[in-house]
Amino acid sequence: MNALPVLVVALCCIAIAYRYYSAFLAARVLALDDAAPVPSKTRYDGQNYYPTHKWVLFGHHFAAISGAGPLIGPVLAAQFGFLPGLSWLVIGVCLGGAVQDFMILVGSVRRGGKSLAEIALAEIGPVAGIVAGVAILLIVVIALAGLGSAVVNALAESPWGTFTVAVTIPLAFFVGLYMYRFRKDRIGEASAIGVAGLLLAVVAGNWVAESSWAQHFTLSRGAIIGWMAAYGFVASVLPVWMLLCPRDYLSSYLKIGTVAFLILGVLIVHPDLHMPALTPFVAGGGPVVPGKVFPFVFITIACGAISGFHALISSGTTPKMIAKETDCRTIGYGAMLMEGVVGVVALVAATALFPGDYFAINTPQKTPEQQVCYAQMVEDHCAAGFDLQPQEIGRLEKESGEKSLRGRTGGAVTLAIGIAKIFDAVPGFAGLMKYWYHFAIMFEALFILTTIDTGTRVGRFLLGEALGRSVHENFGRHDWLPGSLLTSAAIAGAWAALISVGTISTIWPMFGVANQLLACVALCVATTILINSGKGRYAWTTLAPLGFISITTLSAGWISVTDIFLPMTRDPGRATQGWIDTILTSALMLAAVVVLISSVRKWLGVRAARLAP
User: What stretch of H or E contains 125?
Assistant: First the structure.
């Protein structure tokens, strides 16, 4: 099937949802009011609470929420064929993910920028609030580990990618100082300088990779993890205007620009989707995702359709920078739709590869045993009529400059090859495959790192609030430096440690379940806000996605524990990771059920109180 009609239909559905459904939510359900006070002005401190231009904040928010999920998730889900992932991306983002983000953002803005855990405590009750707080803190660490592991796989032993990503940090410092100190509010000038710097960094990366400097940027997996943790710590502590916001703003240019160019490339090249609508792996047993299409496609797609992690951003840094309530529609609902678009184009790029090339890249082949299993899988499926013989892998390796693409699991390399292949087919851009490939690697790494820095800051807020209630009240103050340093170090150290002991295949399933369980908690909070505020007649807007996500995620969690994580505990080499995954996933499922039950009791209590004479 050709990719062009698929992309056009998806974009039209998403555009209609923004034009009509988000307008309905803004006017009828939430009744946005620009005259209402916002915490960026009532609590202004110049560091965390800072009124920010709508489009700059859109850039920060989009960059913060769009991590590995919308890139890696659809690529991994391509194992099932293009239809399951595409359907969930479009339906889920319009009716679920964007609604959640919008509702939580407005709810936090109207409650002084409070976190999701604090809102749950106030709206649902103490039991749900405490359980949600603990669960959210665990989910933040798991989510950051899941996102970070993709960056590690993409940048390890890659001097070109590492140099390019490293340059964005001092560049962001300069842009932040330029916008807020040297030439205040000259956003256009700062943007031009920043974008030019990003493009120059990509080109210079090739020179660095082929020079004597390459050894300084060729880092091991452990070194990449250490530098990522250090960056997350620093970005969490510094004022938002100095590094976090300008870096995310610059990254959003690269992200949106690349996605727009990729859409244009698909329109020009209109490649065929070589992956069928449904593959034999919908019944399970796939080399990428071992489970069946239901329910695993939903937790594999993850952030591209709905993400609980987004609720932490929508109740973390973003509400503290909203300048007026009506900005919430563009930033909350609009940014999530943009992430859905990213997921769709990532799926198109992956499924435009031949199935044999896709599975050659995404099937482990490091050991002789793995190579035998791969060869047997190819033989069996070819005999059954599903051709898994590689078609272009040799040419792609040669033109991308990679020694080997086989067994490069995790999705990042697959997506980079898919993007590079489409760009290379655009008239006038042929012969530049290695530049497109490394540009795509940088694009993915930047996409994910902007979630790492904001996520670490959000985790710092959450841990500080918890310690403020249980240890010392100063921890609850976001401007108390000792508390900021300790909580930032604890969060960055925790997710870095989890990456160190796991792999993408062990962390991603747990991340997918944890992320969707957090979405259940966020939708419970959003529904409770509507019912408590007398808008119960509109509760269907959050109850519908809540019901679906709860069923699919709890089912996937149970299957993951019984069929994936517990069997790992019987393998001496993977026992530790198996027990960590089993205990954390089970605890999070239990926490989500507690919040669900507490929420239902709260809803029934409010209804009974209003019906009482």
Answer: none
**Phi then psi dihedrals of residue 2, to 5 deg:** -80, 145
State pTM to two decimals.
0.83
Q: Are 177 and 242 in contact (CB under 8 A)?
A: yes
What is the residue whose two structure tokens read 């080499």?
Answer: 573
With a cut of 70, say whether residue 506 has pLDDT above it: no
Q: What φ, ψ does residue 127 adopt, rounded to 5°?
A: -65, -50
Kindly state the DSSP code that residue 19 receives in the 8-state scheme: I
Residue 301 to residues 65, 242, 254, 259, 407, Cα–Cα distance (Å): 14, 33, 22, 18, 21
User: Is the pLDDT at 193 greater than 90, yes or no?
Assistant: no
**590 and 521 in contact (C-beta within 8 Å)?**
no
> Given pLDDT bands bounded at 50, 70 and 90, which one contains residue 528?
very high
DSSP H or E stretch at residue 256: helix 244-269
Q: Both tokens of residue 358?
A: 């896709």
Nearest to 600 by CA among 114, 125, 85: 125
Tens digits of residue pLDDT in 26-48: 999 999 999 999 998 899 887 77
What is the rounded distance in angstroms from the CA atom of residue 573 to the CA atom of residue 259? 40
- DSSP per residue over 513-527, as a string? HHHHHHHHHHHHHHH
Taking the CA atoms of 486, 516, 340 and 351 in sequence, report the sign of the dihedral they define. positive
Where helices occur in 474-574 by DSSP H, the ranges are: 481-501, 504-532, 540-559, 566-568
Mean pLDDT confidence for 499-505: 69
Mean pLDDT of all residues in the chain? 84
Other Cβ atoms closer than 10 A to 126:
11
- Report yes or no: 445 and 151 within 8 Å, Cβ to Cβ: yes
